Amino acid sequence: MLRFLLTRLGLAALVALTVSLISFSLLFLAGDPAVALAGEAATEEDIQAIRAQYGFDRPLPVQYVAWLTGALTGDFGNSYYFNTPVIDLITERLPTTMRLGLAGICFALLLAVPLGVIAAIRPNSLIDRFALFISVVGQAMPTFWFSLILIVIFAVALGWVPVSGSDTWRHFILPTVVLGYFATPGIMRLTRAGMLEVLRADYIRTARAKGLHPLKILFKHALRNAAIPVVGLAAVQLGFMLGGSIVVETIFALNGAGLLAFESINRNDFPVVQALILIFSLIYVMLTLLADLLNAWLDPRIRVA
Amino acid sequence: MRSSLLAAAIFAVALPFPVMAGSDDNSLKIAFTREMDTLNPFLNTTREGVILSRHVWDGLLHRDQATGEYVGNLATSWAWIDDTTLEFTLREGVTFHNGEPFNADDVVYTMNFVADPENGVNPQRNVSWIKEAVKIDDFTVRILTDGPFPAALEFLSGPVVVLPDTYFAEVGPEGMATAPIGSGPYEVTESVPGESLTLTRFADYHAGSPKGTASIDTIIWRTIPEANTRIAEMLSGGLDWIWQVPADQADRLAATGRYNVVNESTMRIGYLYFDASDRHGETPFDDLRVRQAVSHAVNRQAIVDNLLKGASEVVHSACFPSQFGCDTTVTRYEYDPEKAKALLAEAGYPDGFEIPFVAYRNRDYAEAMMADLANVGIRTSLDYKKYAATRDQIQAGEVPFAFMTWGSYSINDISAITSIFFKGGIDDYARDPEVIGALDTGDTVTDPEVRRAAYSQALNRIADQAYWLPLFSYNSNYVFDLDLNFTPTPDEIPTFYNASWQ
User: How far is Cα B335 from Cα B293, in angstroms, rounded to an integer?
Assistant: First the structure.
């Protein structure tokens, strides 16, 4: 187990390092950052001064190490647009994204796992078809369209929930549904497939033969085993949600990290973009690692593989 | 396309449902697209910031929208003592939101703070003309300008507001951004970065202000980036006022009969510019006849009628017509594709030529112009990209032909547009000594008649030489509750202190 843990940790660290290198080099992909910073009507002296001030005149490896050391201590520099520390902007907005992501994954699991289980118990039944329909629609419908349809029906026409904003928990209902819904198809199909396979297994037949209660067999024996890949997928989906809530946050005017990323790209605010890419990637790496470890804990066979 | 489809869907579903209009607590809920970079009025670079500044702070002067004349606000009278000295008599009995009394020290402190380039006022041209301010007595101040600067009154009635010296000295620019204090008709009582601002009517606002007495008690100012969401909020009664609504959606909102939909011109104009000075090497535009040919080829009126609609008009001079010095009686290029073809043939391009065409907004307008150009044989390839990248390339001299726009920062003086693009700077692709000389005169002489004559000379030369093809003025659709009294103005600075509920 220790060896497994160390290998996984080492891999995660390598991925994180690569990501940091890529996000650092982003700043230089879009041309000379000093020229961009200097803005309109800047003279050559202004640009030189900015180069010196921000340290753009140093060799790239030196700049990278300086940036990485800063990043490790939470210092990502100042936002070009807000002229305030990037880390303050992110800590101010990340909680909204986290709240949304966690609510989204809970919604997805609550919807997808029961549907998947029922579909597996009654394959090719009406309910299986219904579950399939939901997953196909979920995969096919664009986020912005689905968001606006929900807004039109539940906020404008029925008036049950507010259109946009983040003042109360009611403001989070529609965004949660939209975000969670897109994780539903994968989780549901995986639960269904896992359950179908497990339900055919010999030990389930043994359990049945012993006369155990069907529900106990279903949840204690079958689902626990079928859930292993689902755990991994859910963790990865959560990572997607945190980084991928850009559209949802924009439409529902939720002031989260996703909206910040979108606006910062539009504003050429590279320090913010860099920091967000790094943070989102690290969260993703950590969630994948967590999924691996969880799987290994649930299924001893993985530890030696 | 995408947004109009969605809008159609929103309307189809939402229309049968009535909406609560008006306000029972005398509050006004408004939304803007962008989050402000800072609430500090001297560091803010967004339109939203300009609007906020007019509500929370006051300037020495105020421009009357109806007459275009300057009237006193924090100053009661003023006079040019010489070419570079303005003297102001200040209003007595004014207080800031925190109770600090207003006097000459506030003006002197503010002017001297912003005039120092070290303090990073953005944009610098709002303040770079101020040399220093001197206190004469408690209610008399002199502002010395850095050379003759006739547009000073315009800036003092706009972006240059007065900060409370004691509070500002204590909290600095950051404190002014988190807890802004001014002497304007509204005070900021709550700020949630990126989401909302709450403005509350300032009960002790000075009675003599040309801004009048505000009627609305509370303004809830939200940031909603998505246009469809703003419309949905409007339809559900979550907002009372939105602006910059696209023409097709404004038409639909108007058809519901539930909203006031008012179209007003803005100070933004669109233009095509040509590289006439070989900044990007030799191009067909070096020949005056080619520039004239393009000017005759583009059907500007058709674009205004079919795409911009509303209060937009074709413009002929390189400025917005209401701006001081904007002479509109220059050479006009009527739509005449045959004449354009003839001019091209005369210039040695009987079969036209190929040229890249850069644009950053209104892709549909750009495409309409490309079709017009193709019609006379000029084959363009559209290079459509973000504003920052476009402007960088333009300033680096890499773009020979582009469709650009300029909003003059709502400054009603020609120096905020023509002087930026034609005085030989990095944005100037004409580099015409006659134009540069005339603009220099206009920008530095205080006599209004001499200024007018100089600007007229510059504008006529620009039109005769077809350095720009000025296209059209932009417009904005304002949509607000039927019960709301609100009047939009061309400077694109909505004044909610003049709004009221019926």
Answer: 10
CATH number, domain with residue A259: 1.10.3720.10
For B303, the token pair is 């674009």
Per the domain annotation, does A249 fall within a domain? yes
Indicate the helix (H) or strand (E) that contains B223.
strand B218-223
**Across the A/B interface, how many CB contacts are shorter than 8 Å?**
99
Which among B48, B233, B239, B421 is the top mutation candidate for probing chain A, defined by the most A β-carbons within 10 Å of its own β-carbon?
B233
Residues B60, B155: Cα–Cα separation, whole Å = 10
Convert the pLDDT of each residue in A184-198 to its tens digit: 888 888 888 888 888
**Buried/exposed code over A8-42 (b: 16+ C-beta within 10 A; e: otherwise):** beeebeebbeebbeebbeebeeeeebbbbbbbeeb
Asked whether the beta carbons of B365 and B270 are under 8 A apart, the reply is yes
Judge whether A176 lies within some domain: yes
Which of B14, B229, B391 is facing A253, going by the closest CB pair? B229
Question: Which residues in chain A are contacts of B123 at CB distance < 8 A?
Answer: 40
Is A42 a domain residue? no
The two three-digit tokens of residue A207, written as one number: 């359990």
Asked if B454 and B438 touch (Cβ cutoff 8 Å), the reply is yes
User: What DSSP string describes B9-22?
Assistant: HHHHHHTTS----S
* Nearest to B375, CA basis, from B302, B316, B312: B302
Structural domain containing residue A201: 89-267
Taking residue A58's Cβ as centre, other Cβ atoms within 10 Å add up to 14
B/e letters for B101-126, b = 16+ CB within 10 Å, e = fewer, are ebbbebbbbbbbbbbeeeeebbeebb
**Residues B333, B19: Cα–Cα separation, whole Å:** 48
The burial class, CB within 10 Å (0-12 / 13-18 / 19+), for A2 is exposed
Instruction: Output the CA torsion sign for B252, B254, B259, B263.
Output: positive
Are B37 and A162 a contacting pair at CB < 8 A?
no
pTM of the model: 0.82
DSSP result, A164-196: S--SSGGGGHHHHHHHHHTTHHHHHHHHHHHHH
Task: Judge whether B227 and B3 are in contact, CB under 8 Å.
Answer: yes
Q: Do A152 and B425 touch (CB under 8 A)?
A: no
Q: How far is CA A300 from the centre of its chain?
A: 27
The per-residue pLDDT for range B240-265, each reduced to its tens digit, is: 999 999 888 888 899 989 999 999 99
Contact B308, B472 (CB under 8 A): yes
- Which residues make Cβ contacts (< 8 Å) with residue B97, sequence separation at least 6? B181, B182, B183, B187, B202
Those residues whose C-beta lies under 8 Å from the C-beta of residue A236, and which sit 6 or more positions away, are A284, A287, A288, A291
Helix axes A270-298, A257-266, angle to 10 degrees: 140
- The pLDDT profile of chain A, 305 residues, written as one tens digit per residue, is 778 888 888 888 888 888 888 888 877 766 666 766 665 555 666 677 777 777 777 788 888 888 888 888 888 888 888 888 999 999 999 999 999 999 999 999 998 888 888 888 888 888 888 888 888 887 788 888 899 999 999 999 898 999 998 888 999 999 999 999 888 888 888 888 888 888 888 888 888 888 878 777 777 778 877 877 888 888 888 888 887 788 899 999 998 998 999 888 877 788 898 899 888 888 888 888 888 887 777 777 766 65
Q: Is the ipTM of this complex over 0.90?
A: no
Residue B23: both structure tokens together: 């306000």
Which residues fall within 8 angstroms of residue B247, CB to CB, at 6 or more apart?
A: B307, B308, B309, B310, B477
Q: How many domains would you assign to chain A?
A: 1
Which residues of A fall below an 8 Å CB-CB distance to B?
30-31, 35-36, 40-41, 81-83, 92-93, 144-145, 148-149, 151-153, 155-157, 159, 162-166, 250-253, 255, 259-260, 262-263, 266-268
Alpha carbon dihedral B387, B389, B392, B394, in 10-degree steps, equals -70
A18 found inside a domain: no
